[in-house]
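Tutorial, part two.
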Amino acid sequence: MQRTAYAVLHDWKNRTVLCFARRSTKGRALLLSSRDYSVVPPPRDSAEKEMLDRILRVDHAGEYGANRIYAGQMAVLGRSSTGALIQEMWDQEKKHLEKFNEILAESRVRPTALLPLWSIAGFLLGASTAMLGKEAAMACTVAVEESISEHYNSQIRTLMEKDSERYTKLLQVIKEFRDDEMEHHDIGLENDAESVPGYWLLKNTIQLGCKAAIYASERV
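Running the prediction step on this input gives:
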């Protein structure tokens, strides 16, 4: 017969930290420490930590890059009739980035070292497509948001296959943000994205760059 004792160690900023001591009749004790977490559970081993770090790092990078793209679009089209629509989508992306900044800090995950590059590349992509007109800017939005949505869907499948209950909170965040990205994708289509000359070439080129950025951000 085993007995489990629970002791409250301290309460820091309303986060209760517990120490679980499990004692067997043979006198062996296994101490496990845990804490209340907002989104990401404490990793159980190095393999899980590596997986979660990669997910959080690339998601943060994607939202950071999306913010820079919208910043570039606003720099060109901010005062046009399309400016309010772009600003509305950008405001959602700002909330996404703010949340991932919070999650990275809480989980002690460093962002990708490529953020300075994504800052420049994202702004230039947004500004250059906006200079071609509203339709090209919307085509850029469709391409980027489709890529991000597909990547989020891949992460959702991975986390659900591993342990959907353990990652419930993280899955909720990813699904919510995925839905926002798909909404932006649909807005782009509704605003004549496909009417820009060379739409498929432009879209595929941008998505190829997105795939390269995702691959690099997961690893660097």
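The CA atoms of residues 138 and 191 lie 7 Å apart. In part three we will examine how such features are distributed along the chain.
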